[in-house]
Automatic annotation (TrEMBL):
A GO molecular function held by the record: galactoside 2-alpha-L-fucosyltransferase activity
Organism: Artemisia annua (Sweet wormwood)
Record's bilayer topology term: Single-pass type II membrane protein
Name by which UniProt lists this protein: Fucosyltransferase
Xref: Gene3D superfamilies: 3.40.50.11340
Record-level GO cellular component terms: Golgi cisterna membrane
Listed InterPro entries: XG_FTase
Record carries keyword Flavoprotein: no
GO annotation, biological process: cell wall biogenesis; cell wall organization; xyloglucan biosynthetic process
Amino acid sequence: MVMMTRQKIKRVKWRLKDVAIVIPYRSLEGHQDGLHESSLKHNQKSCLSRYQSALYRKESPYKPSYYLSSRLRQYEALHKRCGPYTESYNRTIRKLESSELTSEPSDCNYFVHMPLDGLGNKILSLASAFLYALLTNRVLLVYDNGGGIADLFCEPFPDTTWLLPQDFPILKRFETLNNKSSESYGNILNRNSSSSSFVYVHLVFGYDTQNELFFCDQDQIFLQNVSWVIMRSHFYYIPSLFLIKSFEQELAALFPEKESVFHFLGRYLFFPTNPVWDLITRYYRAYLAKSDEKLGIQIRIFKPWYLKVIINTTFTYEALPETILACSLENNLLPEFSTNDSPITPREKGKSIAVIVTSLHSGSITKIRDVYWENSAVNGDLIVVSQPSSEGSQHTGKKMHDKKAWAEIYLLSLTDKLITSSFSTFGYVAQGLGGLKPWILHMSKNGTVPNPACSRAISMEPCFHFPPSNGCKTRSSRIDIGKVVPYVTHCEDMSSGLKLVDP
């Protein structure tokens, strides 16, 4: 590590075209924040964002525990020893190719994660999978169907890969695995047998009570000696890991500040690949770098059927632009503006505020931009509104669409303040990476602006939208799992969901 003593910090000017940014010298050496002490083992040119991201974002107010840093180094060593095509991996593959589960311990056990749905869901479920692997001393391998993960994210661990090899023996079966498969955890429990060489956990919307048992202590004991656990999920299920008694002590040591879990995991795991980093840095230099303050506004317009079937609610979006503006004014995120025809003379020179809007549609940006184009801010602030893209609809799986989505998430995380949409995993990722407690928009049900228009999140942690309701101990009890421990509570934007907080 680079030592900075005698109250002197060696500083370097790094020029973003015509904008000089002054940073501590250590930032050019990689992230010396306890999370990335192994950064110098990576090829710098292959992942520029790993070494340049500190130039663009403020230093986090949160500090990782020494124990978390230590466990990450241990995990990196484990992954290097047990990763794809190592001797241990090849030996365990042969066990997978056999027809039955075995209770014989392996020197390496694996957790294969199959992410699905949109980019926000994929990132959150990947972070959840990594924490589970860390807690259970498993090696995380990611099924990258179509190459989307490799196109978007740098390899997180030095001298190895987290991608599941394409010659994985049962790869062809992945698309057909579901909760009815003979290898599903629920069916294995029902049969009370060990007739499969792996266990499949189906943790997607509508998962049944048998798969809920994955979050029970006694079921984790059963899984300890299973070499291959395979899961399909699109959830941020970390809050429910905090309710597993056998993980409690380890999690307390890893994360003394509960609301920093995704903040640290996200900053450790997810660095944009060079093509995505190029999108991010060019946009930042053009639209954000010169501003005194940056406000992010993340807008997600859900289809009516999704709101009704999945979220069990209804909204109208006619008043959305006015709601965003009201939220901004009520919370002093944007200045009041004068509607008088005569120009005003501010008492002092105002600051410049860059507003970045991310949305699949362009309607909301027009309202905000026009207000501050047609009217002066009463305090003399200058407001510049921009939107990187407006794709019209979600095209998950299309490579350029996903690259733009990842770039926009990252740009939002570089702002000083953030407004997000309810239920949106896109916004959850941005707030977590940025260490931001966002203002969450209240959606209108009658076409008028809600009062209040938004409310501040109680923590920057994402929400687990559909947690298990099983009480585990009796296998049938129904309890309010948002009241079991003080640091797991219900979400602001979805009352049945769970999120981590610092009580």
